[in-house]
Design a protein that fits this description.
This protein is an alpha/beta fold and about 400 residues long. The protein is about 20% helix and about 30% strand. The longest helix is centred in the last third of the chain and has 19 residues. The radius of gyration is 31 Å and the shape is elongated.
Length: about 400
């Protein structure tokens, strides 16, 4: 059976021909958090003019060689206004932060260093060429690449693109993800479950997880546990970049999802991973799409999504795949099957000597509460049967 690491590596390798998805042009506001799909170059110099970085006086440094120099104040320049004229020889002008320097001026003195004597300005110290001036093109020269294709568009990058006058950007398309919940016992949210029935919840959890990972989810209607119902469900999923099913991949008599995928034309790459929760997970390619068969227990669904689907979605979206890892200490002793890697849902708290991983009250993969309110997965490695309280563990930090 594959280890979780080997399974993930195999999935990412199997998707290499699809990564990243093709670009699309979107308004700037929709580009945040996505991968840039073009080089972003400055059309002109940024800033486009020499600008003051202080409220003060613009002048020629050569006119103020020593403290006490006096210059007549010729005019005022406010931000957003063109200077009325070049600076007359031997004069200075009032200027404010962000305003363009008049022709002839080569520096600014801040107003705290200047006393006014009527129409004259008295300078408290010698001037220095270039002081308090943002030079034209000093941020970016015309033609210079500000952000290269592949860059993650964070808030600062969005500001940079706006400053360059870009109202829209080419970004990597978000993966379109079909989510197909399967199970005869499931009723859709909003309907009261009858005897033996439960409310379908994995689809909603997965839709939220897909969105968080940078994908566009479509939650399909529940498919029952019959070949015909599953075939209809998969037909509805066709045309998406990624198909995620939940349930029906284990060894029960009504676990028919893998057979249905194969009958629909998918090539399944592997089934089962040596892990808990989530062992019956399956993955394959379905033409240009990736198919992920997630086990139905709520914690199994979300842990396998986190380990296998999320990195795939991030890669498709052109985004970095990995979460931040850390090392922490177990807050309680744990026993486990030695042949499996166990992913323990934990809350992480700062503790003495580093992070402390507190396992959720229940780790039963069928409990909805075992999949809610954790901020890390603690990785309990294969080969170990018990871990003592305080044992160091690798943590995958979520969110
Ligand atoms: P399965 O993987 O189909 O054997 O399902 C394992 C367990 O997960 C069963 O108790 C199912 O009722 C439950 N389950 C399966 N799918 C869902 C779902 N979409 N929402 C909530 N529970 C589910
Ligand atoms: Mg089932």
């Amino acid at each position: 059976m594959l280890t979780p690491d080997a399974a993930r590596a195999r999935i990412l390798a199997a998707l290499a021909d699809l990564v990243p998805l093709p670009p699309e042009r979107v308004p700037l506001a929709a580009a945040a958090g996505r991968a840039l799909a073009e080089d972003l170059a400055a059309a002109g110099d940024l800033p486009a003019f020499d600008a003051s970085t202080m409220d003060g006086y613009a002048l020629r440094a050569a006119d103020v060689r020593s403290a006490g120099a006096r210059l007549p104040v010729a005019f005022e320049v406010f931000a957003g206004r063109a200077p009325p004229a070049p600076l007359p020889p031997g004069a200075c002008c009032r200027i404010f932060t962000g305003a363009p320097l008049p022709e002839g001026a080569d520096c600014v003195e801040q107003q705290e260093q200047v006393r006014r004597r009527g129409r004259q300005a008295v300078l408290a110290r010698p001037a220095e060429r270039g002081r308090f001036v943002r030079r034209r093109g000093s941020d970016l020269a015309a033609g210079q690449v500000a952000l290269s294709a592949g860059a993650l568009l964070d808030a600062g990058s969005i500001g940079l693109a706006a400053g360059l006058g870009r109202a829209d950007l080419a970004v990597v398309r978000r993966p379109r993800v079909a989510i197909l919940p399967t199970g005869d016992e499931l009723v859709p949210l909003g309907r009261a479950p009858g005897p033996g029935q439960i409310v379908e919840s994995n689809g909603h959890a997965l839709a939220a997880a897909v969105r968080e990972a940078g994908g566009e989810p479509t939650l399909l209607p529940i498919a029952g546990d019959s070949p015909a119902a599953l075939a209809r469900g998969l037909a509805a999923a066709r045309g998406h970049d990624v198909v995620i099913t939940s349930g029906g991949v284990s060894v029960g008599a009504r676990d028919l999802v893998r057979a249905a995928m194969a009958r629909a034309g998918a090539r399944l790459d592997f089934w089962r991973v040596a892990m808990r929760p989530g062992k019956p997970f399956t993955f394959g390619r379905w033409g240009a799409a990736a198919v992920f068969g997630l086990p139905g227990n709520p914690a199994s669904t979300l842990v396998t999504f986190e380990l296998f689907v999320r990195p795939a979605l991030r890669r498709l979206a052109g985004l970095p795949a990995a979460r931040r890892g850390a090392v922490g200490r177990l807050a309680s002793a744990q026993r486990k099957p030695p042949e499996l890697t166990v992913f323990l849902r934990c809350r992480v708290r700062p503790g003495r000597g580093g992070l402390r991983a507190e396992p959720l009250r229940t780790q039963a993969s069928g409990d909805l509460t075992s999949a809610a309110g954790h901020d890390a997965l603690a990785v309990l490695p294969a080969g170990r049967a018990r871990l003592a309280r305080g044992a160091p563990v690798t943590l995958l930090l979520l969110g």
